[in-house]
Amino acid sequence: MSAFNNVSKLISIRTILLSVFLLLMILPLVVITYITYKKENELFQKQVSQYLLQTVGQTQRALDANLSEIDRLTWTLLYEQSLDFLNGPLDSSYPLFEANQKFKNMVYSNLFRGRLEHIRAIYFITAGHEVLSTENLFYTYEQVDRVNIQFVMDQIERQPLKMNWFSDKRSIYRLKDGFETPVRASVTAARRLIDSNTAKLRGYLFVQFNDRFISEHLRNVQIGSTGSLLVTDASGDVIYQQDPQLSQNNKISQAIQALPAQGQGLQIVDGKWLLAFDTSQISGWKMTAVVPINELIGPNQKILRYLLMMSAIGALVAVIVSFLLATAISKPVINLARLMAFAAKDNLHVRDTQGPIQEISILQFSFNRLMDRIQRLIHENEKQQKEKREALLQALQMQIHPHFLYNTLDMIYWMAKKHKAESISKLVTALGRFFRFTLNAGQEWTTLGKELEHVENYLQIQSFRYRDKLYYEIELEPEVAYVNVMPLILQPLIENALEHGISKSQDGGKVMIKAFRSEDNVLIVISNTGRQVDLEHVRLLLQNATSNNHVGLRNVQQRIQTAFGTEYGIEVAAGEDQGALVTVTIPYRLAALQEDQEGA
């Protein structure tokens, strides 16, 4: 009962199979889903980042094209004589007024007539600090912001041949409070003008643009749904911004200030925002796109939901398939185990139906054969037990006859003694011992010493039969006297020696028996004189179980090999002069009594 309780605590095969199937099906599904999502997320972010960077680059190039056009419009001032009106003295109001009118006409009619909707005002400050301006309120150098103009002059001197661009923060002139116009100032373009003939400095040209100049190119640029575009100059001053709130974020502002002065690239800020920037080679402006990362991975989250839904469906299918597979495999095994437990309670009539699975079908077939075999063995055992009981009753009844035989032989012995017939008394004594051993030969084992004693009684009886024609010798090493041996295995060999050897000789013959130990074996050598035997014929007869010749010899061979193994048995050879030489090989195994005596 305890063994059954221990078995009931073990894990069932269905649980093991279901666990294994689920592990083999769901684990790869989870791993594949995770890897797919990670790889797809990386690829998606990379693609979005590259797209964002390309958008910024293309927008920057479009803006640079606009700036390059302004630069190109001023080239004529470098190589033509369009500024000859500056050659005369401008130390009085009238020449200055007339020069200012010519300046307005030149810039409005010739230079920038196609871009007037983008221009707020144009200034020209000569080398002598005279001011020519399209802004009527700006007419003297004293109105100039000295800090800003010095900053602008320094920047222009670093790149004297290029158009320089500045934010509204660096404007050299600002209207006073109350004079603001609806058109707001934006950026200022400035360049240094020289006389192409004399290479003398004529002055500095300033073109102040309104807010439409940049916004017309950038306002339609969409950076995601919540992203923003920001343009700053080389000093970090904001030139244009779509969403002022993002630029007010300290971390974003610090990240923009820390960006490299040149080139383009991507950067993640605080794990929340993605920055894509590109630096203009023309103006030095840095265009930065700022977009929340959550917005970028939003579509990816939708893909993740789809993946999770597919994984859930796959897991459900895996559970169903695993359950069906585990049931299909474990059900016949569980049923077979139940039948075996039922058969263990002596219910041997149970049989299992063979299923479609080959290996389990073999187990079911073997179980059915085992049950059939057990029932046959039980039936045969019952039959044998019944026959044994009947034989035992017959043996008990036959015990009366040996007692009568022994008493009769004993009476003959004493009568022979009385009449002094010594040969008869010896014959009767030998015959009594022979019958006593033969009748008690039903036991399974005897010793080699007793077996040879029985053979000696047999030879003594036969010597009376053959009178003076039979001689025998028996040599037994003491250490093999107590070796286990089956009863009556030597008598058939002696009978063959007498029957086929000595009885055929007119002069009689001799039988020699030697028993000795050879390593782990015991050799019993039986030799006889007389007529030579056909050894090949004898070997064939030993192998032929259906032959009626040499039945006793074949019976001994089978008994020895059945008891000890096929490596033991009988070998027949020719004698040295005549007759035959039979060698019996058995293992050296002492009887239990002798072993107990040696141990003591």
From TrEMBL:
Lineage top rank: taxon: Bacteria
Membrane topology: Multi-pass membrane protein
Keyword Coiled coil appears in the UniProt entry: yes
Keywords: Cell membrane, Coiled coil, Kinase, Membrane, Phosphoprotein, Transferase, Transmembrane, Transmembrane helix
UniProt cross-references to Pfam families, sorted A to Z: HATPase_c (PF02518), His_kinase (PF06580)
Residue stretches making up the HAMP domain: 327-379
Main subcellular location: membrane
Coiled coil: 367-399
TM region(s), chain numbering: 16-37, 306-329
Compartment(s) of residence: Cell membrane
InterPro entries registered for this protein in UniProt: Bact_2-comp_sensor_kinase, HAMP_dom, HATPase_C_sf, HATPase_dom, Sig_transdc_His_kin_internal
Record PROSITE patterns: HAMP
UniProt protein name: HAMP domain-containing protein
Organism listed in the record: Paenibacillus anseongense
Species lineage: Bacteria, Bacillati, Bacillota, Bacilli, Bacillales
